[in-house]
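Section: Multi-chain targets

For targets with more than one molecule, the full set of components is provided together so that the structure can be written out for the assembly as a whole rather than chain by chain. Components appear in the order listed by the source. The example entry contains two components.
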Amino acid sequence: MTTYLEFIQQNEERDGVRFSWNVWPSSRLEATRMVVPVAALFTPLKERPDLPPIQYEPVLCSRTTCRAVLNPLCQVDYRAKLWACNFCYQRNQFPPTYAGISELNQPAELLPQFSSIEYVVLRGPQMPLIFLYVVDTCMEDEDLQALKESMQMSLSLLPPTALVGLITFGRMVQVHELGCEGISKSYVFRGTKDLSAKQLQEMLGLSKVPVTQATRGPQVQQPPPSNRFLQPVQKIDMNLTDLLGELQRDPWPVPQGKRPLRSSGVALSIAVGLLECTFPNTGARIMMFIGGPATQGPGMVVGDELKTPIRSWHDIEKDNAKYVKKGTKHFEALANRAATTGHVIDIYACALDQTGLLEMKCCPNLTGGYMVMGDSFNTSLFKQTFQRVFTKDMHGQFKMGFGGTLEIKTSREIKISGAIGPCVSLNSKGPCVSENEIGTGGTCQWKICGLSPTTTLAIYFEVVNQHNAPIPQGGRGAIQFVTQYQHSSGQRRIRVTTIARNWADAQTQIQNIAASFDQEAAAILMARLAIYRAETEEGPDVLRWLDRQLIRLPVLLDSSSILADRILLMDTFFQILIYHGETIAQWRKSGYQDMPEYENFRHLLQAPVDDAQEILHSRFPMPRYIDTEHGGSQARFLLSKVNPSQTHNNMYAWGQESGAPILTDDVSLQVFMDHLKKLAVSSAA
Amino acid sequence: MSQQGYVATPAYSQSQPGIGLSSPHYGHYGDPSHAGSAPGMMKPAGPLGAAAPGGMLPQGPSPPGPHQFGQSGAHAQGHPPQRFTGPPPVNSAAPVNSAAPSYAPYSPSAQSSYPSPASTSSVTQLGNQFNAMHINSYANYGLQMAGGQLAYPGGFPGGPAQMAGPPQLQKKLDPDSIPSPIQVIENDRATRGGQIYATNTRGQVPPLVTTDCVIQDQGNASPRYIRCTTYCFPCTSDMAKQAQIPLAAIIKPFATIPSNETPLYLVNHGENGPVRCNRCKAYMCPFMQFIEGGRRYQCGFCNCVNDVPPFYFQHLDHIGRRLDHYEKPELSLGSYEYVATLDYCRKNKPPNPPAFIFMIDVSYSNIKNGLVKLICEELKTVLEKLPKEEQEETSAIRVGFITYNKVLHFFNVKSNLAQPQMMVVTDVGEVFVPLLDGFLVNYQESQSVIHNLLDQIPEMFADSNENETVFAPVIQAGMEALKAADCAGKLFIFHSSLPTAEAPGKLRNRDDKKLINTDKEKILFQPQTNVYDSLAKDCVAHGCCVTLFLFPSQYVDVASLGLVPQLTGGTLYKYNNFQMHMDSQQFLNDLRNDIEKKIGFDAIMRVRTSTGFRATDFFGGIFMNNTTDVEMAAIDCDKAVTVEFKHDDKLGEDSGALIQCAVLYTTIGGQRRLRIHNLSLNCSSQLADLYKSCETDALINFFAKSAFKAVLHQPLKVIREILVNQTAHMLACYRKNCASPSAASQLILPDSMKVLPVYMNCLLKNCVLLSRPEISTDERAYQRQLVMTMGVADSQLFFYPQLLPIHTLDVKSTTLPAAIRCSESRLSEEGIFLLANGLNMFLWLGVSSPPELVQGIFNVPSFAHVNTDMTLLPEVGNPYSQTLRMIMSIIQQKRPYSMKLTIVKQREQPEMVFRQFLVEDKGLYGGSSYVDFLCCVHKEICQLLN
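Its structure, encoded as tokens over all components, is:
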């Protein structure tokens, strides 16, 4: 066990890969019996400070259907300067530059410790990073002010060559021209009319940019390609800072009983279109900030009449939410367009009411963007999360990759069923592609527009080896992950990870296979699958599964733990909550912690805060930090998460002083487990 | 309503007012098919109708009363005879009564180009007639003049005998012997100039528009507001049909009043609002007859008896007049204003003050020729002079700015901004207003931001290569902006090219000379697309007036571009081939004048009449959704609406014919008001009375507008024929019914229409009606549109320009020199002449111009040194220069358009242009001389009399 734990940890550290099974059942039949499929969690840009990128391009297998990358698992004939592809067994000549290789002089990609290796593509221009701010102006002045400050702050974090753009919207959508002297210019669009990229291109006069540049004489100093709307931050940061400073709340009057007209749908469409026609296949982030739901135009979520409330979960379930489908369709189309051109869409939604993220969620989902939800832009939750987006690595580069494509190559015995994660299919059929789709399948290539060091895809495989064609003892299956992406320095890079796992016959070596089971990985993989199915099919129960994986308990997360003399710290990934029991809170109010004789009480109070701070420091997005006490309004966050062992239904049976009752109809874990046991027995019978 | 029902059709339209509706033809008289057609919408004759009891009106004796200017024998006492005598030749040393004018035989070579409906055979017939005449009819003329024929003083010896004869013996008819417009003008000036004209008498003919006098409102609207083609209506439609004299009024409701006349009184009845007749809704006016001790009043228009509202009650005096008669403007004056109550406002709430939006075409050519810079510079100063209510410190008008080429740029110039903001709207297919707050601002408050913007605009587009422009979206944008701001207003558009960019209202060059002189020629005057029609409708509905400054260097399709300005009561200015050094002064003057002029917004005009007749057709810068409400997005002091009346019953001589014109509008300060003009006319069953009370200047205004309107639907040839025919018919009717018997060959003109032939000839020679490919289509469309909104004074000057000798100036006098007739024969090589028609001004220099004058005016030693490349005379410090420039400014005063000065040297190429304005001569592009036309008309008359 210890060895497997270490092995798993090591693999994760080195290659960013965790498999559900680390020994694979050798036939399709056996694999299906395992219930949990052979699958991997793969983190393409796993941080590897110890892995310097190498300054040349990978050597590829010459078979056109294979094109696997030379890796440590390949057999090499140093004398004949040949290497055999470990996927298709093609024998390949080394390129002339490898003439000097020998057993003693091996290139890095052949060294076993470089099972993950990163190449730098030196060809082609280095593209600047692009950040397009899309800002809702229909919000309270206080919120807008905070948002403006956050955006101004972010400008200072951008590399000087990065291109920035600004789109603001409310009733109308304004695309701001940057770097104008003496007057600020913007192009204004109706919030109700969607425009194709071509229309937009004409309307913004973008098609003519090369023409006018050509006629303006020979000033060819190879300027980074930019246009009036996307300009290098070094050139216009003052201008943009002022522009943001002058940004006003949407000036159109909002009549009594109405919501402000918010054109989120068209605004995002214009942002996508702008990048589509100016910088296709160049790393770009659309950062959208919304303070409420879209109330007009394509993508609208709710009408502007306040008397009609925004759709609730019940409306959606009963198909009573008339805008949901149309809105979702609009945003899906945008997400696909952005994904096709390799652009990321982040959504920062801060409002007390719903903002329509349900309809918009595909945008970050398909493009690898962030989706952050908060109560107000004037909270540390938003401010610090947003700041954390611009975290830099030790080289001073952003921890983000753009426009990635992930290609997976497999040994013959195993095929790819699909991937679940922030990706879209590139529809690349090949010999490695399984017919059984799980998640985004039918392809061996995916596009991942936005990558962070923690972006992780769940990849599901299918063992295709027939039962009657056993794999020889000690045989290994190999999988190669080839990730091409634009590094935040502007370089194109290729990261290649090649791994191999042993095959084992399930009948004879079931213990080996069982021992190789990675419980955590499997839980996540199944959870992802469950969510994916829940979204695409029917499956309301699976959601609760996921929570459970993300909740780590300080104590047992049960309502029976909520006692007067306890301090509880709950971490639900999105929320960090410190709960002071009734007695503790009374003590705290009386100021015992400030008295020298109760120093240990002070420590007691301080301990969970320190723990929380540690979590808050690294977690992205920044969790909601809640410090509450018994009876406090914020205590509801705790009460909504705990296992309802005591509810208003049974509290009298449990008697006093046993914990806090939870007002819910959900069953407790105890009841659930009992029920599960009963089912397991009955189904076996 | 009867769009095509042209005046010239009294034969039918007078008796059957509805006929015009059904006929698409202009001037259908003579078309037998209409003779028996049923009336379209004849009003049932009111029981009171023409038979209204006498004595209901306090005034209005029958026409030959002592206050009337008449031509009957009675005129001799107390009235200067000049007005009724024949035309003394201007340059003739001999007085008219003793020396008979000489006349020349009619020259076949100078035959009128106007097609004669009399068919080809008439020529021969005439020829035969001519042969039969005797030379001594000449003597008869003299006798007539000296003798008892004063009643027909316009008599003209149409000497067919002299006109006949072998060609080699032909002599020219002496122009001095035919009626001279100059003489008529001078006579009227001499008799009535400088006097006080009181409007207390019903049906009195006012002084001519060319005569300066002080007008005192004593119960009828000043002729500055309303002029009529005749001040005595025929009692019956049969009579009207017989005379074929159009019955029309030219109403200029916002006419500028000289400072020595009383401005309009403002009546405020508070929440009660104006007192109106319950039945016909006519407003309280001097024509209401109070009865029953003042408790009730009878409406002069519909005869309905109404209760006097309690708040308005007043006792009557011994002659049945209210005691407060002279205290209430609406009881004693012809013109006054009412404060309108909320019932008269849109959505029943008081209007916001109007706004001006300046919309500048910043395409390549306008930037390159410096126009944009010029406009921006000028706006900085001219905006200081936005019109304001007299009692206010600053103008309530808000201003906004838009620039455009093929996209639109809106500007936020809110006062608290450090710098202006530009918002580009590229969706020209469906244009919208991108901002609300900060677009329309108070100029004083936002002055620094506006100046900042105006400084930047020329720079901003300095590098623009954009040639394409849009047009309809520009108007749309302005209209939407006004709509969003919930106010009326005016757009000032500065545009230069054919809008070819892809957008609604996109135009193509369709200037096809091949259409000229065909039935399809009318297409050139029609808009190319119906986009502009519906746009105009929207504009009017939202009180958006469009004024267009055009700077074309080629064909821009004025017929299409000008439609919205015309239908919204705006003005179209056109500067061909605009050159900064030559034309900027003219343009800037126009711009300043247009911004500063008095104007009313969001106006609806209603013309009410007493029973027996009604307004049937309207001409002008107006829009009509129904047959009675004349809608105008705005109306300014220079715009006139011409209204045609037709009978629908008999008119009574006692009750006369009453007209009330009410204009509901929003002032520049944002106050809703009603402006009321009342006019009472006589009625007579005697044709002679009718002919006595005509006003030729008004007739020409009416003929010009109705013909120019007909241009859209009818072949020009037909229109010209109708004009000639109707002229002949009117004169023949006079001859037949009013003149004493005389030789059939004699041409006798009614005194009031002495100059009708010459003016009519000028109208016929106008480029709109001349089908000649040499004349630019745009110019014709432009002039057509211009005339449609002209008042009587402007149309008079436009069709018969003023020509002043400058070399005979008396530099000590401040009065204008006497004008001379517009003919080349009146010019002399030794002379310098100034010609003005309201659009252009020419200074013509004879080759032998006196050097001291040339020196005095131009500061150069001789004629040869004069540089004609100037539009402004140098300020030379001597009396010649000063006097000439003073004369020019007097002529320019009160004219709606700034006249561009052109210096013309005799016998140099540009003289050709100048000659077109010598309207008594044969036209450069066709059109007969006055003499020839008169002969032609005479022939027609003879034809009709036979």
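Residues 208-224, 538-553, 651-658 of chain A have pLDDT under 50 and may be disordered.
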